[in-house]
Amino acid sequence: MIWSYSYIETVHSKLNEYILEFFNKIKDDTAGFRDELFNSDFLQIVNRHPSILKKRLRIVYNYLNTLPAKDRELLCDEIKFANQIEKICQGEYKPKTFDQSVQGIDKIIKDFFLSLYDQVLDGDPFRELNNTNLRAHFNQFSNANENIILCPFCGISFLKKSGDTIRDQYDHYLPKSLYPFSAVNFQNLVLTCRECNSLDVKANKDILALSVGKIFFPFDKSHKSIHLQINVVKDNAKIELIEWQIIFSSSDNKKDEIESWKKIYKIEDRYKGHIKSQVKSWYECYFDVITSSKLEGCSIEDIKRIYSITLATKQKQKSDYIQKPVFDALLADSNIMQAQIEASKYT
What we know:
Blueprint: H1 14-26, H2 40-48, H3 50-64, H4 69-81, H5 85-89, H6 104-120, H7 124-130, H8 134-144, E1 170-172, E2 189-191, H9 207-210, E3 227-234, E4 243-249, H10 255-264, H11 267-290, H12 300-316, H13 323-333, H14 335-344
Antiparallel strand pairs: 1-2, 3-4
């Protein structure tokens, strides 16, 4: 993850808090299923979702009451620990996985948690009680992270912002189909570009299984971003045949996180494809600037320096991540391509 998001506390996170509070209460309760087990605000929502919430929670409660105290506590603690997203990302805890074949009580529990996201979080009862909706959270979150213009998971595509009529989708970082306990935990709900969230890239991958021990926590306040270096390994007159070397590093020694991130989001293949599709137009733009008649009187070296500063500024402002390292690599290593493009200007 190139940059981390700033987390914001909003009313939308209350739904997950209600759930954790409920399961914390029932892990040692044997007095029977009753309204007093619910937070008073949550009870209003539960009563308006009698089938998907109240009925299922009654079944879960009654099931827990058939178990020894130790097993009841174990299940409730699994739900609590599965919501400690930062510890999970650091490899300190591995939550329970639910696959497609679950049956019985596990299926009821899984369906309950999935319904929290699919039907409750942006459903009428929650909206009306809190005078909000999921779009309102998107706007608040986008405004709090207005400095992140590109998708922080790839650095290629632009994110939608609060002023856009269409918003980006929330991605369950730990996919809810496998880890449903954190389905409405906003530390597990992250905004990504459509490509990162597509079936071709991340989708419902088990990112913990793909990791090399640690993964990026999307809201890590200490994350210092990732440094990108690009080299031309083998030059070629045909742009699509240039061989690129892509090197990622971080000043805070997040080697495991970087390796996991590259695997999860297919970063190297996507970067190489993106560079191949854009590099010619990038260089032609550069050449048009340094040969512009409007800049007569300026030395070529000064124009090159200003162009480089402009790209560096765009990278610093998070509006372009890749073009500056590519520009540096081309000027340093790709004499064939430079000659080919410059010659085409005079044919």
